[in-house]
Design brief:
Blueprint: E1 2-4, H1 19-30, E2 35-37, E3 46-49, H2 56-65, H3 73-81, E4 85-91, E5 98-107, E6 112-120, H4 129-143, E7 148-151, H5 158-162
The structure holds coenzyme A.
Residues 66, 118-120, 125-131, 153-154, 156-157, 159-160, 163 line the site of coenzyme A.
């Protein structure tokens, strides 16, 4: 479920008595585009943000935590700069929010987009955050009126995407790859 800050629907009633000042603090921390991410983890609160700056080392640590290999930070920075959409998912803490999820998209900004680097830190997996992250990504792409979205799923997560309505490209017959080395 996506709740935009600044909209009337938002419900931070359990967070604090002073809702308005809490909301202002959250906007200061995560930006005006931030929204709460609902999960079954009742211990923490989670926030989506596209505008909170990403610490590249923290991001690489997150991606390594799910078993992906290290990438040169400078190239990662360029890739992020060239991305259409970058979504950070933060475990909220008033002093030290922790980046625990991430996804980004590349594309032409009008017709097509490709989703990359979808990850939830292992400690936070299984609480519905990955599903909400994908919902958030698709919602954001829809807002940009992107018509077609593709992604390349590792074999172990095909079922994760299928259960959310993604269709498998039939028999690999329409997919082609070229690798530089
Ligand atoms: C894949 C990933 C993002 C899922 O995140 P998550 O927060 O654990 O997933 P959720 O808790 O939102 O799970 C949502 C649903 O998908 C199911 N699911 C989660 N991971 C799954 C998997 N690997 N295979 C099949 N189903 C899966 C859950 O059981 C849950 O089902 P339910 O709605 O019936 O209860 C996370 O496991 C991850 O970061 N994995 C490593 C990185 C990776 O492989 N990314 C994908 C690159 S293509």
């Amino acid at each position: 479920m996506i709740k935009k800050l600044g909209q009337k629907k938002i419900n931070f009633s359990n967070w604090a008595s002073n809702r308005q000042s809490k909301k202002n603090n959250l906007q200061e921390m995560y930006g005006f585009d931030a929204s709460e991410c609902i999960s079954t983890n009742t211990e923490f609160h989670f926030m989506f943000s596209q505008s909170r700056p990403l610490d590249l080392i923290e991001l690489e640590q997150l991606l390594q935590s799910v078993g992906w290999s290290r990438r040169p930070i400078r190239r990662v920075k360029k890739a992020l700069d060239n991305s259409l959409l970058k979504v950070g998912l933060w475990q909220h803490d008033p002093k030290f929010p922790r980046l625990i999820g991430f996804a980004r998209c590349t594309g032409d900004g009008v017709l097509y987009a490709t989703v990359w680097d979808v990850a939830i830190h292992p400690v936070y997996q299984g609480f519905g955050l990955g599903k909400e992250l994908m919902k958030y990504v698709l919602h954001s792409l829809k807002e940009k009126r992107i018509e077609k979205v593709v992604l390349f799923a590792d074999p172990g997560v095909v079922a994760f995407y299928k259960s959310q309505g993604w269709q498998l490209e039939p028999k690999g017959s329409r997919c082609a790859f070229w690798y530089a080395n």
